[in-house]
Amino acid sequence: MEGVVPAGARWLVHALGLRPNPLRRRLDRVVAAAVLGMLVVAVSVVPMVALSWGTAAYEADRHAAERAAATRYRVDAVVIEEPTTVVLAVNPEVSSTTHRAPVQWTGTDGAPRAANVEVPPGTTVGSRIPLWIDDADRVTTAPLSEGQVRTSAVALAFGVFLTGEALCAAGIAGVLAAANARADRAWHREWEIVEPKWTRHGG
What CA dihedral angle connects 43, 46, 47 and 49, to 10 degrees? Predict the structure, then answer.
């Protein structure tokens, strides 16, 4: 049975046990209670918090996507000039390129609209580029899709879960390290008292 039950679990059982044990110190009970509390938080509280945050983020992003979809529409803009290449420098060693070109489309009032937008590589004059436009005929981003909203919410929940578990693990490690350090100091103090008597007895 001892080989089946993890050593940490056996230590918790003995430290929190109700039966008298001359080897159990008050510090053992305090440390075991703190460790058990953080284990409970890691197993029950952290998942609930992560799920709650993920659900809240999903609802907020879904409502935002619905509002965006109600005020944005998609048009096919026509490229009216040759695209130009723009170099975006991240740092002296890393850079990327993008392509931009003037495009034109018909606004909601029937009047022509124009803007300089990013276009795919290989775009030529006369190509049609899908754009998202707001109700003021300004170029904007597409509303988030249901899949994007779900993915973002899951990523947030997973991040919260990992962070919470890491904090609990760090807390347990910190409590055990502090307890061991205190126990070592207590042992050294006791040994300073016992060693002379032990030495004389041995002599």
Answer: 150
The Cα–Cα gap between 169 and 7 comes to 17
- Whole-angstrom CA distances from 102 to 23, 61, 82, 95, 128 are 81, 32, 8, 23, 12
Report pLDDT digits (tens) over 38-67: 888 898 999 999 999 999 999 999 999 999
Tokens of residue 36, six digits = 């058990």
For 14-125, strand residue ranges (E) read 72-79, 84-89, 95-106, 112-119
Q: Measured between alpha carbons, how far is residue 57 from residues 36, 106, 137 in Å?
A: 31, 36, 29
Report the C-alpha gap between 175 and 60 in whole angstroms.
38
Whether the CB-CB separation of 37 and 168 falls below 8 Å is answered with: no
